[in-house]
Amino acid sequence: MSDPRPPDLEPAGGLLATLDLLRIEHAGPVTHLRLNRPAKRNALSDTLIVQLHTAFVNLPEATRAVVVTGEGEHFCAGLDLAELMERDVGEGVLHSRMWHAAFDQIQFGRVPVIVVLHGAVVGGGLELASACHVRVAEASAYFGLPEGQRGLFVGGGGSARIPRLMGVARMTDLMLTGRVYGRDEGVQAGLAQYAVADGEGFAKAMELARRIAGNAPMSNFAVMHALPRIADQSQEQGLFTESLMAAVAESTPDAKERLRAFLEGRAGKVLRS
């Protein structure tokens, strides 16, 4: 990955520094987490899944947003098939649930996550990307779900998350036919929200992460946790949940100070960027 790194990035210490399949750095309120298996196209081994889970559970208190990238020419080529072994049904369920726990900690963790996609975003790599909140795709990115051709089925939460981005029909097509989307087709289908040139993804992600990190923490939490759940509820239930979440968010001291700043002319107005 050729993205220029800002000079203020500092290596993580403590437990995060021991996670050898990840490279973790901090830049103020933003933590940068990089998949670090470039020789394997950042394929997701069991050890890497455990390390991802550990990293997101143990983010520093100062972290307000996370940027995820992949080292080398590809973001993530999916499940490490070298580790694929014969499992009985019970072992298979537990293996899938291990992935679910890791990716749930990303989607429903403490802070928003922005991911930069380049090269292969395939299988489990697309499942990982779908657990993040904002996706930035470089021109080289391509998307696929080859599980059908390999006698497999998604097991990392893809069946629950990916259709919410692109729809059941499109996901069915990818899995049944082995079709691969290029970057632009993936963006049009909803697999990413931002399209940038190769080498520009990290800078864009850091810009977004710093903007997000400046939001009120409870507002970010509400968007991450309440919004997807409201989308799954009936309108009547969703509106009630919205009322509860709105009351919680606006009652925080941070929200009260931000409102005062706006009313007193100390906060910027909404402008088209």
Tell me what you see in this structure.
Helices cover 45% and strands 15% of the residues. It is α/β, with parallel strands linked by helices and 273 residues long. The chain has 2 domains: 204 residues, 2-enoyl-CoA Hydratase, Chain A, domain 1; 47 residues, Lyase 2-enoyl-coa Hydratase, Chain  A, domain 2. The strands form 2 sheets. The protein has a 7-stranded mixed sheet with strand order 1-2-3-4-5-7-10, sandwiched between helices. Helix 9 packs antiparallel against helix 10. The mean pLDDT is 92.
Strand order of the largest sheet: 1-2-3-4-5-7-10
SS class: alpha/beta
The whole-number mean of residue pLDDT values reads 92
The CATH topology of the largest domain corresponds to: 2-enoyl-CoA Hydratase, Chain A, domain 1
Any idea of the CATH class of the largest domain? Alpha Beta
- Secondary-structure element sequence? EHEEHEHEEHEEHHEHEHHHH
Poorly predicted runs: none
CATH superfamily heading of the largest domain: 2-enoyl-CoA Hydratase, Chain A, domain 1
Instruction: State the distance separating the first and last CA atoms.
Output: 27 Å
Number of helices: 11
